[in-house]
Design a protein that fits this description.
alpha+beta; seven-stranded antiparallel sheet; 10 helices; 38% helix; elongated; disordered C terminus
Length: 418
Amino acid sequence: MHLRYSCRIYPTKSQQQALARTFGCARVVYNDALALRKAAWKADRSKIPTGALAKSVITDAKKTDARSWLGSVSVDALQSSLRDLDTAYRNYFDSKSGKRAGHPVGLPVFKSRKDSRQSLRFSRNGFRLRGNGKLNLARIGDVRVRWSRPLPADPSSVTIVLDPSGRYRASFVVDVEPGYLPELDTEIGIDLGLTTYAVMSDGTVIDNPRFLRKAERRLKAAQRELSRKAMGSKNRAKARRKVARAHARVADSRMDWMHKQTTRLIGENQAVYLEDLNVRGLGRGRLAKSVHDAGWATFRRLIEYKAARYGRTVGIVPRAFPSSQLCSECGHRDGPKPLAIREWACSACGVLHDRDLNAARNILAAGRADRLNACGGPVRPGVAIPRQAQPVETGTHRNASRPGRKPRAANVTGIPVQ
C-alpha cells in the first residue's frame, strides 16, 4: 500500500527563489496544456495525446522567445504537471461514468499565480536522498530536511508544497507492506457528536477539544489587523501570513489529536463501526462552524486507512439507520426525538437510555449484523438468532415432505433434498 510521509524542509534564500521559478514554470506548462486541449476539443472534438502535448508545451516551447525560460528549471517537474493534468481529466471522466466514488468532480481549471498554496512533484529522476539526510532536487540543490522518523522504503516521488503560512514541506510517497497487528476479540461502535466528540458502545466518552473555538480570539485579532492593511502592500502580505499561521496552528493541533485518537482505537479494537454522516450537508447548516471544527470526515478517513494498514475492520452503518430511535435492549423503535433530549425511556421495556450511548450500541449491533452476515437476524445480547434450515433438511421446499415426491436432480436449480 502507498503511504505519504510529510516532513518540513528549510530551503535557503536562493533555493526559495529557484523553487518559486519552478512553481511558476510548472503552472505555465499546466495552463498551456489545458488551453490546447480545450481548443482542440472545441474545434473538432479531438484529444491531443500526452506525448504530442509534452512536445508542444515543453520541448518546442523552450525554443521560442516567449517560453525560453522554461529551460532554467527541471524538466521532470514540468512533465509531472502534465501527468497531473491527465489525472484531473481521468478523475472527471471517472466521476461522470460512476467509476469514481464521492462527490462529483468537475473539469480541470486554470491555475493562478495568486494562489496561496503552491506545489510541484518530482519523480525518481528528479530527486535523491543524500547520505547526510538532505534532499537533493534537480536544478535546486541539497535542501535541509527535518526528519521526524526514517522512511520505511525508498520513495517513488516527492511533492514540494508551499502552504499559505510560508512553510515548505516535502511529501514522500512510499510503498510499504501492511503490518498486521495481533487479532483481538473486542469490537466497538462509535457515535460522533458535537457536545461530546465521540461516545463508545462500552461507555467511554471522548470530549470535544474544539480547537477552532479556543483559538477564535487570536484569529479575530489577526483578521482584524489584516482588514486594516492597504491592498497590495507588504504590510498586508505580512498580516495575511500571520492569519495563515494562526489557522495552520489550529489545523496542526487538530490533526495531531486525531492521529493519536485513531491510532489508539485501531490498536485496541479488532473492528470499529461508524455511522455514515452527511458531513457536507451538515457543513452548510447553522452548526457549520462546529461541524468543520470537529473534522468528522478526516476522523473517518484516518480510521479507514489505519485499519487497512494494520489488518483491522471498519464498518460503516448507513445514514438512514435510526440509531437514536431504537432501544438497544429490546429493539423497539420509539420515534424521532429533538437534539435537546439527551435521555429517554423506552416505551416498550421502560429502560432509561443515554441518547449517545444508546446510539453507539445500536451502531455496534448494526455493524456486527452486516460483518458477521447474520441474514437479518438480531445480534443484540440476549436475543437468539433464528436457526436457518440446512441444505440436507426436509421442509426446505414446499411439498418437500409429501409422500411419494422424488428428489430433485443435482443439476436442477434449487437445493437438493435427500
